[in-house]
Amino acid sequence: MYLPILVLAFYSFNQSAYSAGWEGFTLEWYRKLFADQRILSALKNSLMVAFFAVGISAVLGTLMSVGLARYKFPGKALYSGLAYLPLIIPDIAIAVATLVFLAVIAIPLSIWTIVAAHVVFCLAYVGLVVSSRLTNLDPHLEEAALDLGATPLQAFIQVLLPQLMPGIVAGCLLAFVLSLDDFLIASFTAGSGSNTLPMEIFSRIRTGVKPDINALSVILILVSGLVAFVAEYIRYQGEQKKSVSR
User: Fold this and answer.
1) Beta-carbon contacts of residue 139 (< 8 Å; ≥ 6 apart)
2) Is residue 172 part of a domain?
3) Between the CA of residue 127 and those of 48, 79, 148, what are the distances in Å?
4) Is residue 2 part of a domain?
5) Which of 105, 62, 111, 102 is nearest to 83 (CA)?
6) Which domain range does residue 195 map to?
7) Residue 207, SS3?
8) Domain holding 220: CATH number?
9) Alpha-carbon distance 33 to 85, whole Å?
10) 7 part of a folded domain
11) pLDDT digits over 136-190, tens only?
12) Into how many domains does the chain fold?
């Protein structure tokens, strides 16, 4: 399963731009990559989209999870199912639906329409991780805080939110990687001049894979792996602290 990744990394250090044979070790492709203004501009757009989408999703996803776990209201079961529907809907369906919706309400495509589209699925992932964290928390802690004179807002901020923070951070890191790597939804909702990094990569590999794209792919794999490791480590530390407190 990991053999293609190893081959990719191997050829990102190959001196030859065209030969399949090894012609010597070089870092030239990495130097060219970091001097490529189109790549840097696309990376800036991707990071901007990911940070805004994850930031919005963190707030809405946390509130949604707490509301579904702590309160009862008409249509709760239906809303709960709809909230996590983006997890199972194909990306192409979300992309087409978002594009049609934006066309109907006459909103011009731009980098902000990519952000709005990414919030749709990032919200579901953040909500899912936070919800799994909520199911293992003791609700009596909030009740004790209220009995001791805290307002509902104080109980949420000072008691519940610190316990949810490992889940929130882990969910945000997962959503960040998914947003950064997304191509399909971004390509349908991007305006002129708002290319993201996956879109830029796709536009280049249509004429053949170049060594600088190999180098970029290696960097993306390392960054995605690091973020996933940090997210899992934070989740694990949260579980350990919870088991110790018991």
Assistant:
1) 70
2) yes
3) 21, 13, 29
4) no
5) 62
6) 28-245
7) coil
8) 1.10.3720.10
9) 38
10) no
11) 777 777 778 877 778 878 888 888 888 888 888 888 988 998 898 899 999 999 9
12) 1
